[in-house]
Amino acid sequence: MIAAEELGVTSANISEMAARDDPDIARLLGANAGNGAALGLDEAWARHVIADVGNYGEVFERNLGMGTPIALERGLNALWTRGGLLFAAPLK
Fold first, then answer.
1. Count of other CB atoms within 10 angstroms of residue 18
2. Residue 90: inside a domain, yes or no?
3. pLDDT tens digit string along 13-22?
């Protein structure tokens, strides 16, 4: 989910992003065999999760973000590229 946020993949644009010629997105969404099987999961497991609940940022905003009664700012829960601590471990 963090990798999806880093790559700009959301529940709303997942089909469009899957059609791109980007090896990182293809790997994340299960177009390349191996990652799912190595984990004992379907190859498209990450695609299913992102399509169903969104990337990390979408989940955070929906449950804890400024539009909720909690109104929590991302702060350190933001991506490292946005001043936070989150980064995705490689799926290789």
1. 19
2. no
3. 999 999 999 9
